[in-house]
Amino acid sequence: MKKNNLYKTVKKSGLAFVIMFCTSQNTHAQFSNEGDVQVNKATILSINMDYNNKTTGKFINDGLVYAFENWNNDGKVSYDSTLVGKTFFVGKEEQIIEGTKISDFQNVLFENGKNKVPFHLGGKISVHSVAEFNKGIINADSYDGKVIFKENATHLKASDLSFVDGKVEKQGQKEFEFPVGDSLYFRPSYHAARDSSKVYTTQYFYKNSAKIHDHNLKEESILFINDKEYWNVTKDSKGEANKIVLSLTMREGVTPSDFFTPDTQVAIVRWDESKGKWINEGGLVSDAATGETYSNLLTSQVSGYGIFTMAIVKKTPPPPDDLIVYNGISPNGDGKNDSFLIKGIDKYPDNEVEIYNRWGVKVYSAKSYNESDVMFRGYSDGRATINRGEKLPTGTYFYILKYSNGTKGFEKSGYLYINNQ
Predict the structure, then answer these.
(1) Which pLDDT band, with edges at 50, 70 and 90, does 411 fall under?
(2) What count of other Cβ atoms lies within 10 Å of the Cβ of residue 140?
(3) Residues 402 and 299 in one domain
(4) What is the distance between the alpha carbons of residues 310 and 350, in angstroms, rounded to a whole number?
(5) pTM for this structure?
(6) What backbone torsions phi and psi does residue 345 show, to the nearest 5 degrees?
């Protein structure tokens, strides 16, 4: 942010009064705060100059704040308990958002049409409720910035027109789509945590991961590793069980075309630091939901964190074909397809079934699944963030079936469509 001294800040009774002095040589006037600024509910504040919140500054927004120029926070930017406050970054020129302290917003909106990448994020901002990506990509990668979503936060309208090119952090265990991308492409990933105390960070790179980890160092089952893109998924500390259900997006024109060839087996692969090679994490490909920017979704339960991409892998021998999985249910009480039927599972009482939604949240699990009383009927069993007994929304889910014949273990996974309308 361009600094100037063409202003004077006077503090009185805990409030900040700004007196501006402008000359023809000053292209960026500055609103500098060293005291307290309180924007109350139903109050609108338009900042038509660079905003500089100094180390002693306290900026509380419970109203509507429009920032048309650059933003710097070295003090406190926050909100009170209500959820109505909203900050709009709506400049007509490129905007720098920076500072040594986190700017905490209840709600935030990005809309700037100067060019395709008008926002330069050199600091950290956090979102308590909703972030709206209307227009303008946020370049956090080049400036070491980060967008943080608190536990109950979400976002709207992320697309090729507006996303975070850089690190996105998610706190807590709520289901979440990471609004990340690179090189003008929105390339989200999905996953949910198992531990509400953990922090997860994801960044997407439209680059060849072979430049950081040799693609020749791989498990024998891996044939060809995506040489166009990868994701870096990390968590803040150790201690949690490593396995999460991760979904990576596949997009025609970005993901190599070979990955869309019929009968090609595609899997998520991860660079394993301890083994010094790429490992096959498995995966299933599903069609994209209506209106999504990506073409397909690749989902698997993975065994760790780090660098992920996708690969073409050798086809694995199928497990015994004496099970028939009916992958559609409509639990409306009419006696038809009211439960998830795995015909033949009674022959394998030593089994376990897990079902996840598209964000990787476990919605059901059971041992000794059978064809009569222990069956999934379209309701949550109280795992993770879904309340027990809650009717699950219509959509595509991911199941994992593990079973044993007493001497050998098998695993099947696939997609399950629930029609709960």
Answers:
(1) confident
(2) 25
(3) no
(4) 32
(5) 0.83
(6) -70, -20
| Contact call for residues 10 and 30 (beta carbons, < 8 A) | no
Total domains in the fold of the chain: 3
Instruction: Judge if 288 and 369 occupy the same domain.
Output: no
Q: Give the phi and the psi of residue 260 in degrees, each rounded to 5.
A: -105, 5
Report yes or no on 284 lying in a domain.
yes
Yes or no: say if 174 and 192 are a contact pair by the CB < 8 Å rule.
yes
Q: Whose CA is closest to 197, among 218, 222, 172, 178?
A: 172
Domain co-membership, 6 together with 145: yes
Tokens of 9: 């800040």
DSSP label of 321 = T
Q: In angstroms, how far is the first alpha carbon of the chain from the final one? A: 52
The per-residue pLDDT for 193 is 64
pLDDT at res. 197: 66
> If 0-12 CB within 10 Å is exposed, 13-18 middle and 19+ buried, where does residue 3 land?
exposed
Q: Which pLDDT value is given to residue 291?
A: 78
Q: Which two tokens stand for residue 199?
A: 């922090």
- Coil, strand or helix at 304: coil
Reported as a single tens digit per residue, the pLDDT across 258-298 is 999 988 999 999 999 999 999 999 988 888 777 788 899 89
Nearest to 374 by CA among 407, 401, 396: 401
How do residues 13-58 score in pLDDT, each as one tens digit? 333 333 333 333 445 688 899 999 999 888 999 999 999 999 999 9
- Give pLDDT tens digits for 331-347: 877 778 889 999 999 99
Domain that holds residue 351: 324-418
Residues 286 and 352 in one domain: no
Contact 285, 313 (CB under 8 A): no
150 shares its domain with 36: yes
2 shares its domain with 140: yes
Q: Which amino acid is at 99?
A: G
